[in-house]
Amino acid sequence: MDLNQLKTAIREEFSGLQDELKTLALDLWEHPEMAWKEEYSSQKLCDFLTNHQIQTPKGYCGYPTAFRSEVSCKTGKTFAFACEYDALKPGHACGHNLIAACSVGAMIAAARIMKKMDLPGRLVILGTPAEESGAGKVHLMKHNILDGIDAVMMAHPGKCTIPDRGSLAIRRYDVTFHGLSTHASGSPELGVNALDAVMLLFNAVNCQRQQMPEFCRIHGVVTDGGVAPNIIPETAGCRFFLRSANEEWIEKLDKRFDDMVKGAALCTGTTYTKETFSVDCRSRKPNAALNEAYTELITELGEKISSTPKEGRGSSDFGDFSQAIPGAHPYFAITDPCNGAHSLEFMEAARSERGLNNMIKAAQALTFTACKFLMDEEFQKKVRDDFETK
Ligand SMILES: [Zn+2]
Question: What residues are neighbours of ligand 1 (ion), with CB under 5 Å?
Fold first, then answer.
């Protein structure tokens, strides 16, 4: 089979599948569930796959809302699709309902094409819960969820259609300073002010900004600022996120932050506790060859690749996947420039006609990339080489 025949086969598969996939995405949108609580969504996705001849039991290694299933043909390479399906407080404001239907659709179509065309290799679908706040993929990696997989992809909704341009590694800390309370006016000399330590830490972080490259970020909030102005705060706390697109710099920032906390305590005579909040995520390492195949097909389907310079980036647990094996996390446009993901506007776009139609295009681009990977040894080598040389 050549690539033109593959493209025709993909078109045929999706003309039959697209209505069901859109209904699935809307059903998930109507039932938003927070991280680790995706009972309804994961059951729906497993049932959908099973109804399309891909037996998928719900649950993986003790995580009830995760899943993993596979189909294989002759011996060859293994390609995986990752699904996300957790929501935020107001609902599907990050459009993970579209991600899930997109990857499930790609898995079903690619599996059918693999069987019909007798393609070598194996396809895997990974149900990865809790992207938003739980770093589900990092947890699942401790249970070898990527074992035997040669490449992994998913597509995320966004403001524009673009290849994966990477994301930032993230480390999150809660810091509490401990001092001594006293009457702030009657006997200030007896107190040790924990809030001063928090304020010094913010000032130290703000000084550090001037010495950081553009691809780093530090941002924090005060979580405990004391009780009343006439009481010297005995404890005070803050939460900071440290981010970097570069793995070397996240280490540097981490070390600097640790020194700043120590310095703030030393200056004020306080003690401190510093705890990790949530799980660390690594930066995303986009695979150029996988990106290229995705953009080739989505462009042919009428999507324009945005050439606007990179805007701010967040962090994602797919970063850890992409550092372990070749991976890509490209985007498909569901709305024109708006407040972006996590806004109410974006949530509406995640069930709009344009959102659903472009989700189908992205699913076709993922199917194309997966099938090309299974059948083309030259492409497999390019994917591997790109991963190894970065
Ligand atoms: Zn998201």
Answer: 94
